Amino acid sequence: MQKERLHQYLAQSPVLRALYFAKQQLNGFLVMKNMRAQRAQRLLPKFLALIRQFEQSPARALAATLTSWLEPIVRMWRFSKSNGITEGFHTKMEMLSRRAYGFRNFENYRMRVLAQCGWNGVINRV
Predict the structure, then answer these.
(1) 15-57 pLDDT, tens digit each
(2) Which residues contact residue 111 at a Cβ distance below 8 angstroms, ignoring those fewer than 6 apart?
(3) Is the dihedral of CA 95, 96, 99, 103 positive or negative?
């Protein structure tokens, strides 16, 4: 029922309809996390054509942003690894340091970091 209402609403405004479907296509591109080189090579012209379509529409600012971030977006498709886990652990360690106003010795800080990051049994192995 919601899709029917959406299509009825979009049928009233062709410009809005075109923008909506372009946004859906863009979302489809950005959801893809990694691709092989051949698939990325095949889809990149479609992605660039979509950006050019946004440049000709009221979404010029979005086109400028996508153009400036084009290299990282393509890199995201090609390489699926990120340092998100490392950044998360680093943030936890920073928060521990801020809350404690410094530990008296490194061993106390180390024990707290290991407890916060959830690494059971690491203390005996290190």
Answers:
(1) 788 888 888 888 887 777 667 767 777 878 888 888 888 888 7
(2) 123
(3) negative
